[in-house]
Amino acid sequence: MAKVLIIEDNAANMTLATFLLQSAGHSVLGATSAETGLTLARAEQPDLVLMDIQLPGMDGLEATALLKRDEATHDIPVVALTALAMKGDEERIRAAGCDGYIAKPLAYRDFLATIATHLVKATL
């Protein structure tokens, strides 16, 4: 069982991602802003962070950059959870420091497969 932090401001997306992760046996922490998510990541040391890119205030790319620069959190994999699915978005998101990319709306099998892949990489 892994501890996954979801940073997502949309209640429906948060509920769905939480349900899918808990159904797969993971524990879930949730934050609705980047600032709260950064605090939780430092305090709780999750195994994985799912980061919405379009957040109010600080966006997910800026928050990812802060996580990756912080000695306490730089090894935690960050997977973008985003509706940005245009050509070039995935490359831009990965270039900003995200370790993976999941497009919304969530397709549960792909979602769980991507999570599993990043959790395996994190334990190597």
CATH topology: Rossmann fold
The total tally of domains equals 1
Largest sheet: 5 strands, parallel
* Helical run tally: 5
Question: Topology of this structure?
Answer:
Elements: E1 3-7, H1 11-23, E2 27-31, H2 34-44, E3 48-52, H3 60-69, E4 78-82, H4 89-95, E5 100-103, H5 108-123
Parallel strand pairs: 1-2, 1-3, 3-4, 4-5
Helix pairs in contact: 2-3
In short:
This protein has 124 residues and is of the alpha/beta class.
Key terms:
124 residues, alpha/beta, Rossmann fold, five-stranded parallel β-sheet, 19% strand, globular
Characterization of the model:
The protein is of the alpha/beta class and 124 residues long. It has one domain: 3-Layer(aba) Sandwich (Rossmann fold). It is built from five helices and five strands. It has a five-stranded parallel sheet with strand order 2-1-3-4-5, with helices on both faces.
